Amino acid sequence: MSQTIKKISVTYDAINPNNTFTCGDIIHGRVTVEIAKDTKIDSFRIKFKGKAQVRWTEHDHHHAHGQGHVHHGHEHGHHGHGHHNRRTVTYFDKEKYFKSEQFFIREVKGNDDICPVLKNEAGEPYCDIVAPGTHIYPFIFQVPQQNLPPSFQGAVGFIAYTLEAKLSRSMRLSSKAKAEIHYVPKPDLTVPDLMVPQHGSKDKRMKVFTSGNISFSIHTERMGYYLGEPIKIVAEVQNSSSRELKLKYCLYGKHSFFAQHKRKLHTQDILKEEGESIAKSTRQTVTKVITISPHLTTSILNCRIIKVEYRLKVYLDVPYASDPEIKFPIVILPVTSASGGEKAAPPAMSSIGFGGGWNPDQPPWNSGPYTLPQQAWNSMPPNTMPQPAWNSMPPNTTPQPAWNSAPYTTPQPAWNSAPPTAPSAAWNSTAPTAPPPAYDSYAFYPPLPNSSETEKSDLL
Fold first, then answer.
1. Tens of pLDDT, residues 379-426
2. C-alpha span between 353 and 432 (Å, rounded)
3. Which of 224, 317, 432, 452 has CB 3.0 to 4.6 Å from 301, enough for a Cys bridge?
């Protein structure tokens, strides 16, 4: 920060206790600038934008003959003639959702006056000569009424919705500040099969150390569940083998990142629990309830370059043999908060309790050398996002959306001469529109190159 511009910050008011926003919500914020001496400002604006981005690098060795080339990404390194080289390839892609700008001070060039210019408390344009002291510039934006994915921070990609301020002066470096809002989409309950019961079965003939046959089937009430909801699992097991067997349950997540026809996959076991033992030569029906953590990232199925999925795996632990297993897709739906902090009502459920409980002991990673930060799987870590000051009074008049490019009268923020009390929202991260289809079913995602057998098994 320069000696003249001592400080610049972006803050906003929360509209619910969780400090989240959804489509159509109004954001009341302000840019605070502390100036040491009289200064002339050429341009001063606030931008609201949403985008997704992925980036990662991979290393490989190859035998070079002459000048090498790269089919995907960007190559770094040198190639010789007839010898092995180590190559680094960078994969990158981004998806822009919206961008809207408002100016407090603007240097008009020609007829370039499309973006709205805000006015001060007296209804006049802001002066471009600013005196020493602390100055507050309020603004208003509306979250677009679009099918947007939720805020998310992953190992090699993110989805972010940011407020960015930029103050420009002649022959000086620009002064910048930004704050991120936590966006949670509204759940789409009209998706086909989201509330349809799921069923699967498996048979296995025992060999070597165990004789006989085993068969089991699994039933769940539906595919879609809200954060914090219980999942009721009913298992019917026919153990005609010579050994006692045990049912086990695993809920795991899959993060997929796509760039330039390449896919990078991270998986993590979210929850592991053991069920009842099944005695030999018996048939039993077992009911198990496990609870989805309220802090997980919701499923992301409507982003071109980032996909977040969940699977429920139920299997029989068979000694000295491979374990028969059944997998179901699970779509985790967001719980949005209204302005008064009330949660959206979940769909009708059967009267099952929360007996399963959340297992706080997170299993280790199983995705190889890549390590996924914990916050990527915990969308709202406790006590890490500073909460802006609570403002329970929504505006009386809904302004025109700032993201609408059609001509309209620029909404003027209510002037507040008092110093801001809301701290800047932390630069931090976290609705499905369809259940997860089979890969390539509808060409939602880029085609994959030939995968190894290990990666193919991860697609299940």
1. 444 344 444 444 434 444 444 444 433 433 445 555 544 444 344 333
2. 26
3. 432
Enter the tokens of residue 403.
């993201």
Tokens, residue 34: 């502390």
Distance (Å, rounded) from C-alpha 285 to C-alpha 268?
A: 29
- Record the pTM: 0.70
> What fold, for 5-55+92-183?
Immunoglobulin-like (2.60.40)
The pLDDT, as a whole number, for residue 71 is: 42
Q: How many CB atoms lie within 10 A of CB 324?
A: 18
Q: Are 23 and 146 in contact (CB under 8 A)?
A: yes
Instruction: List residues bridging with 306 in a β-sheet.
Output: 257
Decide if domain 198-333+341-377+436-458 falls under CATH 2.40.50.140. no
Domain ranges of the chain: 5-55+92-183, 56-90, 198-333+341-377+436-458
- Structure confidence at residue 216 (pLDDT): 92
Which whole-number Å values give the CA distances from 269 to 199, 227, 272, 275, 359, in the listed order? 22, 17, 7, 17, 11
